[in-house]
Amino acid sequence: MAVGDVYRLTLQAVCQGQTYLNTWAFTMKSSPDPTNADVLTLANAFKEMARTQQSQLVTYQTWTFRQLFGGSVVPIQDECRRDGGLVLTGNVSGTVIGGVSSDMLPPQCAMVWTIGTGLAGRRRRGRSYIYGLGEAAQAAGTWIGTTMTTFTTALNTIYNLYGSAGTDPQFLLGVWSERTATGCEIRGNPPVLTNVDTPHPELAFNMSTGYQLRQTVYSQRRRTIGVGR
Predict the structure, then answer these.
(1) Relative to the CA of 95, which of 2, 71, 101, 106 has its CA 20 to 30 Å away?
(2) Which helix (H) or strand (E) holds 159?
């Protein structure tokens, strides 16, 4: 593989019988293929970014690291998909349950972390939803100051490692646009994923130069293919 290859990390957890999946995109800063040990360190870092503020009802389980661009990855334009690429999987390690024993907010309520790239356009920004926080973390629909401070510290740690000036030698956090990569969007009635443009996976990744935490408690909403994440 090579510098500039792109992967998607998927981190899976369960809470009250529901499965939660968070995804983040990374490009490679070094040429060797990532190993399971490399990705385990990455997955655990993103687990710990939120876990201590999540309910003890949250249990982290597995991670998947799937290649999106580079190497043997080939876009299949007419079918809005890709073939090939490296896929690594494993279980998270260390403490896997949340660290908060108080009552949990409804499962659809989340803190929104906006992943910025310094570029305009919906395809060049992303969001991550931090779920499972305790009721005491908010007041009247907004996150309290100590909660915001805690997550600011946690995300500063993440960006010091994996942001645009991060110290990690392998992984660089960013935003990946499936719309740009595949040239596909949802059209028609019933809605169908349809190719409307030439795929450009080489343009689909933009590195993250910063972030914003939204103080409002938001509902998690289904994302569309046109928006980065």
Answers:
(1) 106
(2) helix 145-162
CA 42, CA 228: separation in Å to the nearest integer? 20
- Taking a C-beta distance cutoff of 8 angstroms, is the pair 182, 203 a contact? no
Strand 18-28 to 58-69 pairing = unpaired
> Considering only CA atoms, which of 12, 96, 1 is closest in space to residue 56?
96
Q: In the chain, which ranges are E strands? A: 6-15, 18-28, 58-69, 74-76, 81-83, 87-91, 109-116, 126-131, 138-139, 142-143, 171-176, 184-187, 192-195, 205-207, 210-213, 218-219
Contacts of 207 (CB under 8 A, 6+ apart): 27, 117, 164, 172, 173, 174
* Residues 59 and 31: beta-carbon distance below 8 Å: no
Q: Is the separation of the CB atoms in 130 and 32 below 8 Å? A: no
**Cα 117–Cα 123–Cα 125 angle in degrees, nearest 5:** 35
Q: Angle, nearest 10°, between helix axes 145-162 and 36-51?
A: 160
Instruction: Give yes or no for residue 229 having a pLDDT over 50.
Output: no
> How far apart are the C-alpha atoms of 171 and 162, rounded to whole Å?
6
Q: Are 96 and 59 in contact (CB under 8 A)?
A: yes
- pLDDT tens sequence across 100-155: 998 999 878 999 999 999 888 888 899 999 999 999 999 999 999 999 999 999 99
Instruction: Fill in the amino acid letter for 227.
Output: V
Q: How far apart are CA 48 and CA 33, in angstroms?
A: 24
pLDDT at 224 over 80: no
Chain centre distance of CA 84: 21
> In terms of pTM, does the model score above 0.90?
yes
